[in-house]
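User: quick one, fold this
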Amino acid sequence: MTGTNAGPVYRFSSCMHILPPSFLDELFRVSAVPGIISFAGGLPDASLFDLQGIRQATEAVFDEHGRAALQYTTTDGYRPLREIIARRYYTRLGLLVSADEIQIVNGSQQALDLMAKILTSPGDSILIERPGYLGAIEAFSFYSPVFSPVPPDDEGPDPDYLANIIRTEDPVFFYGIPNSQNPSGCTWSDMRRREVADILSGTDCLLYEDDAFGELFFDGKPRQPVMKHLPDQVMMSGSFSKVVAPGLRIGWIRAPRPVLAAFNRAKQAADLHSNLFSQMVLTEYMTRNNPDEKIRAMGREYGERCRLMTDLIEDMLPDTVGHTNPVGGMFLMLTLPDSMHSMEIFEKGIQEGVAVMPGVPFYVDDGGCRTIRLNFSASSKEQIEAGMSRLARVFRNMG
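Assistant:
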């Protein structure tokens, strides 16, 4: 007999015991408190969503496709959308990519989960930047890998460290965000991208190049991906969440065809296919509008907010607090003096009416207690000024 008078005993898989506790639930709870200014989340600014353009695209889908838009589709995704994505690799980056190399997913977060599912077995080594994206850490953890963090220097991942750990640990893949990394906001230099490609070349270690922020450079100029130098060894994901609307939940993965074939089987087993209606709406939207102009305007706006935030950091916070200097994306990172802890800043910030993201969850090796991630995309300039004033009070009160 397995039950009790109080009810059944729920038996969860072993992976639930391995998965790190999520800080996000608590973060979202406190950030939703009325009056809190939140720099803690990772949202784009909803006021920049092209509501009219998306409405027109939605109406066009019904007018042109009718009930077909509500039907099942193929696992790899709506081909006209995949062709648009492939063309944009050429028009933006000069890269020849076929629609057959692209798989549509439910936001790039699903690509993280499925890629780990098909490539890793328990105990396999995965390399990840230090600090690394929390969503990737959580997605990969379900498959019981051994994480090996790769520290950065001023240009990106430390090349000597990366080369050595690939030799000694035989990792399955290296997960990195070369453009406007989450959480640090840092961008790899062009030379470092070539160095990483050279280090990986001739090994069995793949690169998972997450390009969630590649279209959000403040100067509007794209950077060449590592994939350019090593196409047969790189999986590259992208998303419409940051540049059109996250609620559509549409992203993609471009991968070598043997990897994509396995990925397609895992995707089919997981959910058959991504939302066809959203794919059709995006196709109509991207066809009928000039998305590049709107995306560049979004990048310029985020750049103004980032510069405002960094100016206020330098004017209002102690000289012992450092910060990264993003050239794109949605985040920057603070470094704290040894006398301060990021969790204490978080707790006291809530009391002052401002939420920040402690750095601890971004580290797989118990680091991060001296770092804080700040988001500048979701807050207006007035909110940034008010929120930084509140954060400055936290630092003053901590002496």
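User: anything notable?
Assistant: The mean pLDDT is 95.
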